[in-house]
Amino acid sequence: MRLLITGGAGCLGANIVDHFLPRTGIQILVLDNFATGYRESLPSDAHNLEIVEGSVSDQKLVDGIFDRFKPTHVIHSAAAYKDPDDWEEDINTNVLGSLYVARAAERTGTKRLVNFQTSLTFGRPAVTPIPNDAPSKPFTSYGVSKTAGEQIMLASNLNVVSLRLSNITGPRLAIGPIPTFYTRLKAGKGCFCSDTNRDFMDMSDFIEFLDLSLDENAPQGVFNVGTGESKSIKDVFDQAVKYLGITLDEPVPIVPAGEDDVQTVVLDASETEKNFNWKAKVSFEDTIRKMYEWYDEFGVTAIFSHVKKPDVDGA
Ligand SMILES: NC(=O)c1ccc[n+]([C@@H]2O[C@H](COP(=O)([O-])OP(=O)(O)OC[C@H]3O[C@@H](n4cnc5c(N)ncnc54)[C@H](O)[C@@H]3O)[C@@H](O)[C@H]2O)c1
Fold this sequence. Notes:
The chain is an alpha/beta fold. It has a domain of 191 residues: 3-Layer(aba) Sandwich (Rossmann fold), CATH 3.40.50.720. It is 36% helix and 17% strand. It has nine helices and 14 strands. The strands form four sheets. Strands 3-2-1-4-5-6-11 form a seven-stranded parallel beta sheet, with helices on both faces. Helix 3 links the parallel strand 4 and strand 5. The protein is globular and about 60 Å long. The two termini are 31 Å apart. The structure holds nicotinamide-adenine-dinucleotide (NAD).
């Protein structure tokens, strides 16, 4: 397999590299501009890993990589979201970047492309857990641009699957309430919980699913990838307090969701489970505990958010 991973230095990308690199017969190329990813997250001395610094919105670069590397499989993980007011950057990366990747993949005969999509594509969903066929109604620059990018992928002639992801939790996670509570509570600082609910899935469940989704004969189209379990940010806070063995003097404040935030994002993955014969296995408690054990060992690298304040609630 010749695997191109766009955004491969990011949180998900680096975990995917870790998973596939030891396989025999695999060559991996990562294209990343290090906007929110880190070169240090990737091994520098692996004979079967090439790292190219650059942007998916650089069409010449993207074409050159496809012509030279000729990937059989592509995981399109690159995404811009850092500044919710920077629509231009989000459009450049998430729309134009997706277009250039799709065109080059079509032209050079990529056998399977896996696209990662944010659940913010559903906007403020009318039904939760969100059904697989719920309409896209995004309203942030990230959600709107990622949805346009996904539509471009789906409108191509590629063998493509687009995964609408829940909050994937595992090594290098540096966004959202899980690292925020860990960092603040350890430093003896106060916290607040936004009054929102999310669907937290362990990295090991995600990687297991990704393996299945890369299969050329696996179903195409869009699929929700989550646990279907609704957990509040307060539930995460309680796990953090329990893990760190902290006694609170007073209850943590619960604040209303920010204007550009969504109250509940929980995915109904039953279609996915049926189509891929797969189901997430790791419990919420174990998912959070594993994350905190990882922070104990490696620390929290950085905290970015997809939404404006309050920033304890990225998806
Ligand atoms: N982690 C999750 O729980 C989650 C949930 C929903 C969707 N997603 C999607 O999964 C993908 C990966 O997310 P992540 O959590 O690993 O985020 P991340 O920020 O860690 O990774 C994104 C990577 O893309 C790179 N990048 C940004 N702009 C680029 C450009 N123009 N060209 C090349 N590389 C560029 C960044 O430097 C980074 O390494 C994204 O598409 C995101 O929308 C992730």
